[in-house]
Amino acid sequence: MAYIMNRDERSKIINLQELKVSCSDCSLHQLCLPKMISKEDMHTLNNIIVRGKSLKRGELLFNFNDTFRSIYVVRSGSLKTVYAKEDGIEQVIGFYLAGELLGFDAINGYHPCSAKALETSNVCEVPFEHLEALSARMPSLQHQLLRLMSKEINTDQNVMVLLGKKNAEVRLASYLLSISSRYQQRGFFSQDFYLSMSRSDIGSYLGLAVETVSRTFSLFQEQDVLMVERRHIIIKDRDYLQRLANGSDECGADVNKNVREY
Amino acid sequence: MAYIMNRDERSKIINLQELKVSCSDCSLHQLCLPKMISKEDMHTLNNIIVRGKSLKRGELLFNFNDTFRSIYVVRSGSLKTVYAKEDGIEQVIGFYLAGELLGFDAINGYHPCSAKALETSNVCEVPFEHLEALSARMPSLQHQLLRLMSKEINTDQNVMVLLGKKNAEVRLASYLLSISSRYQQRGFFSQDFYLSMSRSDIGSYLGLAVETVSRTFSLFQEQDVLMVERRHIIIKDRDYLQRLANGSDECGADVNKNVREY
DNA sequence: CGCAGGGTTGAGCGCTCTCAATATAAGTGG
DNA sequence: CCACTTATATTGAGAGCGCTCAACCCTGCG
Hints:
Two copies of one chain form a homodimer. Chain A is an alpha+beta fold.
């Protein structure tokens, strides 16, 4: 029987080879702040970035109510952001994969949520004061900063659309497609991957109970849409997921029967 | 019997007196881009802004897929943004009142959603190219721009929290408190106001069926928490709404009984 | 080997959806 | 100004999806 690596072992492979490179050598620079920036400017940007901040599974990058100081970029691994609600219950409102930036919701002064590593992860820290000063001198950086914040708004709004209307199958299908395409953008397998988040995280994010998430995974497995083995996911019928997510009602049962008409 | 003005008549009163003033004279400048900007800089900003764009109820400010050109500020009245979904069904994802900015989700090039006036409204248009160029020369403007975008992210994330967890009563209570406090910030009555959006808009925004919204209004009326007469709302027991929204379970029935534990 | 955390599955119930009818207000044209 | 149409809102009845509670399984780890 083949040896199966656990979460942290898998992520360490990427970790080691990516550590301590400069922005220009980083495989993620097309997704990150340096995009569309000239060689010289990238060098300047390079100098303000604090590299190699490492987090173990469960560690906090920043906590709810912390003073805002920096924007962070995920170099490897993944994180979730959670809102603290009444009773100590927390709600997951975002997942961040390699190349994605977090902290844009805190520019007003304080972090409204906590960021926790889902696995062994590595992040770059970009002190915001410096970034802001640099942006004022580099129009292309300012532009990229605004674009990235706009993208964050888009992401959040898409989640709102997801949460606002659809049933469990549709939500999970959309979620898997989103994760899958984000992996693809990063050059990973998009049909065969390991989720770094628990069922409970997914449920919290999608507004569903853990049991419902689990049941829906099982349903997809029965329907031969997915192969599921705990966090190892293989997408067997991407079209079906796509049709579910797009709301076309050609998926056997009428998936729209419970969708409100506005 | 007293004569009751309709929506448009009410908003016209504000319209006429606010038209064609410069930013420095605008009562909304504390909420808007000019906040914390020097006199001279405000004058420069003033010159790039196109004022007095007027919209009738139902008119579009921009449409889904339109090329992005400008950020807009609501001067008077109110707008909603809607995502076009499959089947021509639309979902409301934001409401914008006087002093609030919209368009930040389109900086990547195209508007992902449409913006429609809920009543006779007046907006200022801020051409983004100019705004960006100006920001590069005015650190305080750049800062304010980033803050406003961060705030938009906060708003969206709060909606995600709302949609992710709570039942109809809690959602509507949170919604009314949010609207109420935004009115208060603008110097209007916070306990006695007219909603500019329909039940259907509210339902779409909160992820509830129209009928559920209506029923919940009726429930609050029965419980003497609100006085409701179509879109005229009087808040009689703000504390109760607050307790609902905060999730404390001292509100008669156990409101948390249907809230998932994560 | 036993324990803990995460995941799966089952049973039952309740909130909210759907469908439907009616009421009220707003808008339109003669 | 009034009848007509349309949009919006309210209310009722019934059904279903997803939640809660509960038991069990699996995996990893000390």
